[in-house]
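lol forgot to send this yesterday, sorry. struct tokens for the thing we talked abt
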């Protein structure tokens, strides 16, 4: 837990440094997708770091929150609006302060937990380790939206391997969430880390494979890039199909960007 929480903190602090240095006008820039601003991205992270902190420290309070939220909204659009409302009402500096307070309490709470301890969430309960991994993935993915709209290159995250692992473990979910049959064919991964190390998952004997940069795999499974806009090489129909439906996050099935939609030239 110490390692993953350290990586989560690094991801949060790095994104904080980026948005804290932005011009005031940049908070209203529309991020990819055209519906959320940069401010909304931070509102989203702050809100769910808040509710994650509740889950990690007071399960009863978290469950009461879920009941209240569901009582106020009967569809995902309304729920999304409610989760953004508090942060939208704040000035940028107030939002950053709120986010810092919530995430710092969250990391402190998670760091002291048994990795196998079950924590309540909006779907099934999760182990503390998976819970921390999900917060890391969310921070990294929504951070990418901010980096993209600002056309900034981002430093390599020390937590990428955790995100890759989450992408691998959500293989079956990505298909079943769309009502598709889960393929029986295993897929082998051979991904290059930012340091040049090779990370491997799966049986080397299987023909279906994905080879390429680990960061690009993370961009695809978090639906921040289309597979055709990366240098990932897929072998076998199942490997490519996975990359077209991959969804490393919970919720209803969503569609990532089309090919060419998120080609970003960084400054």
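and heres what i got for the seq, position by position
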């Amino acid at each position: 837990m110490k390692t993953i929480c350290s990586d989560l903190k690094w991801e949060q602090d790095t994104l904080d440094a980026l948005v804290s240095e932005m011009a005031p006008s940049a908070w209203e820039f529309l991020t990819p997708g055209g519906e959320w601003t940069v401010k909304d991205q931070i509102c989203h992270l702050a809100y769910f770091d808040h509710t994650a902190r509740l889950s990690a420290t007071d399960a009863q309070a978290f469950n009461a929150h879920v009941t209240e939220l569901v009582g106020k909204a009967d569809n995902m659009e309304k729920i999304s609006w409610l989760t953004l409302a508090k942060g939208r009402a704040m000035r940028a500096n107030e939002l950053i302060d709120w986010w810092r307070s919530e995430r710092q309490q969250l990391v402190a709470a998670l760091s002291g937990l048994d990795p196998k301890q079950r924590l309540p969430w909006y779907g099934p309960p999760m182990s503390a380790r998976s819970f921390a991994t999900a917060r890391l993935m969310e921070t990294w993915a929504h951070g990418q939206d901010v980096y993209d709209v600002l056309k900034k290159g981002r430093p390599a995250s020390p937590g990428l391997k955790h995100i890759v692992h989450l992408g691998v473990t959500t293989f079956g979910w990505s298909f079943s969430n769309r009502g598709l049959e889960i393929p029986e064919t295993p897929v082998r991964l051979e991904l290059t880390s930012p340091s040049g190390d090779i990370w491997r998952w799966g049986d080397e004997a299987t023909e279906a494979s994905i080879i390429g940069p680990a960061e690009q795999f993370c961009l695809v499974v978090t639906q921040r890039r289309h597979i055709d806009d990366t240098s990932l090489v897929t072998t076998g129909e199942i490997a490519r199909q996975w990359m077209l439906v991959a969804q490393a996050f919970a919720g209803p099935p969503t569609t990532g960007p089309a090919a060419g939609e998120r080609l970003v030239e960084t400054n």
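The chain has a mean pLDDT of 95. anyway ping me if u want another try
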